[in-house]
Structures are given as structure tokens and as C-alpha cells.
Design a protein that fits this description.
six-stranded mixed β-sheet, alpha+beta, 17 strands, Nitrilase/N-carbamoyl-D-aminoacid amidohydrolase
Length: 290
């Protein structure tokens, strides 16, 4: 048995303030027995992608860099694994939406770069981030083999499948998603339902755990209505059942006990990996089958 910790928090324009808060919440999760702790997408900044503004490139930093090195020390001190999603500066003019995987000895054992980059109203990520080029991976940490995907990646079954096929027992999805306030009344319920359902389906289809850490609070760095992040971080078991779920508007740490033995049971009774027709899927690599 092991415990997962999800950090759900509000963010300010001050990166150091956000990192200080995240560290406090990591320590709180560890005090409740969490072994693997996941922060939300670009946790140390506001969600600046609501506007296209060169000013926000100042938030980017390298991996390893100040934030990941600091959290690596925290991971070593507490003996926990930390997933730390930040705005990565790879080189001048080249940036990624990334996550560092910090093992319990404090070492950075890898990083994931967000593969699917959205370009929608208030989610103008293509202005800031190049698409990931490290592929879909998993990492053997002290406690479990984990995979990490980020936000918009969560809508794509291909990413979940490839990460699970690489050995991931838990799929972590650090996220920054919410409602456009003017749309919430009409579309809000169906938008949230779709988001939750697609991720639960990844747990079912791959016979693994899914753990989602979403931010909460209202942010409007560009003025206007901004985004009302819907929180509701959750953990789903290999049957797709939600076993832990956060609130809409509270900052909180969710600590959930899981049993990796469930993967074997689930996959033996629902042998989707066995019955895949790998010989018949070549056209999946096409943009569209005309």
C-alpha cells in the first residue's frame, strides 16, 4: 500500500510566494503519509497563458534550476517523490510546459514536456510553449512506476496508452483548467463532466490509477472575466471509480491510499492489453483517414 498526495492551490503573480505555499502543502501531505506528491500545472506562477505577453517569459527557468533544486532538497528531507510542473527555459527563445520528477533521494530522475499544446480563448499556450519532444515515458521511483502528462494531454487516449505501455502504474495529470465565467451557467456542467469522464476512461482502458491535481481560484491577469479554475482534483482507481475528490474552491492537500495490487486483478479480469490488435492500428498515426 502507498499514499498519493495531490496539492490544489491558488496562485499569485509572485513565484516565490507560490513555491513557499507549495512547500508547506507538500510538508502537510507528507505528514499525512503521502509517498508521491503531485503539484498542479506551472504551479509556481499564475496561469499567464490567458494573454500573449512577452513579459511572462521571465517566469521560465531551467530544469534543474532554482525551483526544482529546492524541491529536490524537500523530497530528500521528507523521503517522498515530488512531481513539480514548471515553465521550462530550454534555451533562448525555446520554452516548454514541463514537469520534473524528483525521487525520494532528491535526484531529478527525469522530466516530461507537454506534448499537446492548446490554442483556445484564454488558453494561448502556443505563444509560449514548444511541443514536447521527449515522448511518453514512465519512471521507476522508490514507491511506484509513474507516468506524467500535463493538462491538455489528458484528452488524448493515445498519450495515456503509450505511457501505460511504458510501464506506468499511475498516470499523473497536473492541470490548470476551469470555466470561462460567462459560459459556466450554460456549459459548465457538461465541460466538467467531460473532463472527469475522459480521465476516468484512461484508468479503465489501461487498468491503472489516474491522479489529477488541478488549481483552484479565479485568475484574470489580462483583466476581463478571466478563468474560474474548478479545482476538484481527484484520484480514480483502475476501474475508473473516483476514490478521492477535492472541492471546487478550497486550497487543500488530498492524501489517498492506493493498492498497486489492484492493477494485476483489474488487468487479469479486463485484459484490454492482451486483446489489443496491434497489427491493425497502423493508420492511427495518420492525421485523418480519407
Amino acid at each position: 500500500m502507498l499514499k498519493l498526495g495531490l496539492v490544489q492551490m491558488r496562485c499569485s503573480v509572485n513565484p516565490l510566494e507560490n513555491v513557499d505555499k507549495a512547500e508547506r502543502m507538500i510538508r502537510n501531505a507528507a505528514s499525512e503519509g503521502a509517498n508521491i506528491i503531485c503539484l498542479q500545472e506551472i504551479f509556481n506562477t499564475i496561469y499567464f497563458c490567458q494573454t500573449e505577453d512577452h513579459e511572462y517569459f521571465r517566469f521560465a527557468e531551467e530544469i534543474p534550476g532554482p525551483t526544482t533544486m529546492r524541491l529536490g532538497k524537500v523530497a530528500k528531507e521528507l523521503g517522498v517523490v515530488i512531481i513539480a510542473p514548471i515553465f521550462e527555459r530550454r534555451a533562448a527563445g525555446l520554452y516548454h510546459n514541463s514537469a520534473a520528477i524528483l525521487d525520494s533521494d532528491g535526484s531529478c530522475i527525469g522530466k516530461y514536456r507537454k506534448m499537446h499544446i492548446p490554442d483556445d480563448p484564454l488558453f494561448y499556450e502556443k505563444f509560449y510553449f514548444a511541443p514536447g519532444d521527449l515522448g511518453f515515458k514512465s519512471w521507476k521511483t522508490k514507491f511506484a512506476t509513474i507516468g506524467v502528462l500535463i493538462c491538455w494531454d489528458q484528452w488524448y487516449p493515445e498519450g495515456a496508452r503509450l505511457t501505460a505501455l511504458s510501464g506506468a502504474e499511475i498516470l499523473f495529470y497536473p492541470t490548470a483548467i476551469g470555466w470561462h465565467p460567462r459560459e459556466k451557467k450554460v456549459y459548465g456542467e457538461r465541460q466538467y463532466s467531460a473532463w472527469e469522464t475522459i480521465q476516468r476512461s484512461h484508468a479503465i482502458a489501461n487498468g491503472c490509477y489516474v491522479a489529477v491535481s488541478n488549481r483552484t481560484g479565479h485568475e484574470a491577469p489580462a483583466g476581463g472575466d478571466g478563468i474560474e479554475f474548478w479545482g476538484q482534483s481527484f484520484v480514480a482507481n483502475p476501474s475508473g471509480q473516483i476514490i478521492e475528490k477535492g472541492s471546487v474552491d478550497k486550497e487543500e492537500t488530498l492524501v489517498t491510499e492506493i493498492d498497486l495490487g489492484e492493477l494485476e486483478l483489474q488487468r487479469n479480469h479486463w485484459p484490454f492489453l492482451r486483446d489489443r490488435r496491434v497489427d491493425a492500428y497502423a493508420e492511427i498515426s495518420k492525421r485523418y483517414i480519407d
